[in-house]
Amino acid sequence: LGVAGCTALLVTGFGLRDSIGDLAQTQFDEITKFDLYIALDSSYEESVYYNPIVMDPILNRFLNDPKVTGYVEGFSETGYVMANGRRVETTVMVPIKSEDLAKVVTLRDRRSGKGIAFSDSSVVLTEKMAANLGLRPGDVFTLENGDGEVGEFVLSQIAEYYAGSYAYMGKNEYAQVFGEEPSCNVLMARTSIVGSKEQDDTLTALLSSDAVLGAQFISQIRESLDTVLNSIGLIVIVLIVSSGALAAIVLYNLININIAERKRELATLKVLGFHGDEVAAYIFREITILTVIGIILGFGLGLLLHGFVIRTVETPDFMFGREVSPTSMALSGAFTLAYSFIVQLAMAPRLRNIKMAESMKVVE
User: Fold this and answer.
1) Does the pLDDT value for residue 99 go beyond 50?
2) Virtual CA dihedral for 30, 36, 40, 46, nearest 10 degrees?
3) Which SS3 state, helix, strand or coil, does residue 147 take?
4) Are 9 and 294 spatial neighbours (Cβ–Cβ below 8 Å)?
């Protein structure tokens, strides 16, 4: 059980690294594919979508800059999703052209990795929010939009998403429920603008436009997230050291007790002609078998502990990864075996120092 606990701690530590360490890369490289979010003044909504020629000159100049490789127009508002007696705040996102959403956001199922087809009638919730509300595809939920209007929707799919709670809706579905077709109030742009100075200059220029209410580069959000996530390395180190201490204490005491209680038996083996290595193997073989059994049990316990820790530290709008990689499992087993081997090396002199005369000290 002690060895199983050691392995479980290691699986949890390395699993946290898997779940959190690559989170920013998965979210901002694979799922979120745009790097600049621009919120527009509502009075410019129709002119931006229906007649780009009359767009604000500053915004027009920016969108035609060679460093802007493309942008998608959308409607966004803050709303509340309600189901099963629970209420979660969310960001409602409606692409003006549904087929364009894939250019800036990858909607996919986390378990299978298969992409989610998005159309004008789609209703997709992010995974953490759906889990909090107890929703599955086909379930009905209630949405309160930014104007306080309430409508019911049928959930089409659940999408992998880690940073934030989003409800992606097709334009026709949103318009059918609320009776008004959404108009563009946000732009999601893909650019080649890098470096904090160039990004700050771009934001300063954009915010000087009367058409722009706000703008933010996704890389700035990512940097803040990376700073928090980098601290996971220290947690992994603490768990490795703690598990090593646990294994050392358990195995040391186990071997120590084993030798103390079987000293006469071991001395007798020496009298019978067994070499020192053979006598040591007599004890250490048992310890190794117990260690292997403990590692196998520890894998199961570690997966359970990892899942518990991940779900405990998550926030309502922030989800961590759920998977523990095979490499992490292998490392956990290897570290545990290494701890066992080190303890055995430390205890080997104790066995070599057993005197053959001990076999004569019979205690009945």
Assistant:
1) yes
2) -60
3) coil
4) no
